[in-house]
Design brief:
Order of helices and strands: HEEEEEEEEEEE
CATH class: Mainly Beta
CATH superfamily: Calycin beta-barrel core domain
CATH architecture: Beta Barrel
Mean pLDDT: 85
Largest sheet: 10 strands, antiparallel, barrel
Number of domains: 1
């Protein structure tokens, strides 16, 4: 009986490296391993209706030539309420997100914090920024892009804005 338990223990211990090797496919990988091309799933024309009734639409390019560019606008009743330009690029081996709200470059760049290739989800964060401090881009399905902005509001409480967008064909 002791030799059977000893054998079973050795078998279990020898399987641990295999189990450990399979785990990264489903968990968030280190952001340092991500490349701009890994965000190619952002490419396309996306649109959705916000809680305030406005329409939000955005266009993302592919990662050709080392950048992903986007232009987006929020509009309601024939009026543009706001627009933003975005730039994704690599610097020193890291993917960076640089927003330009209303065409003005933000003084804060947002380095990639987390990357999940399987879930097609990336998180950019900069705690030095007021709001938002975190941007999460998630391809929930081939035709559904969810962008979540979060961070402390003016009162210090956590605030979140979600853009639930559908692919425009």
């Amino acid at each position: 009986m002791k030799s059977f338990l000893h054998f079973a223990s050795l078998l279990l211990l020898s399987a641990l490296p295999v189990i450990a090797q399979e785990a990264p496919a489903t968990k968030i990988t280190e952001a340092a391993g991500a490349r701009l091309a890994d965000l190619g799933w952002l490419a396309g024309h996306w649109q959705g209706t916000l809680k305030n009734g406005a329409t939000f639409e955005t266009h993302y390019t592919d990662a050709t030539a080392g950048t992903i560019l986007s232009v987006s606008k929020e509009h309601r009743n024939g009026r543009t309420l706001g627009f933003e330009l975005e730039l994704f690029y690599e610097k020193d081996g890291r993917v960076i997100y640089q927003p330009h709200p209303n065409g003005k470059r933000s003084e804060h760049a947002f380095p990639l914090l987390a990357f999940n290739a399987t879930a097609k989800k990336v998180t950019f964060e900069n705690k030095e920024h007021d709001f938002p401090q975190t941007f999460v881009f998630h391809l929930a399905s081939p035709d559904n892009l969810v962008i979540t902005l979060s961070g402390p509001g003016k009162d210090g409480a956590t605030r979140e804005i979600v853009y639930d967008l559908k692919r425009v064909k």
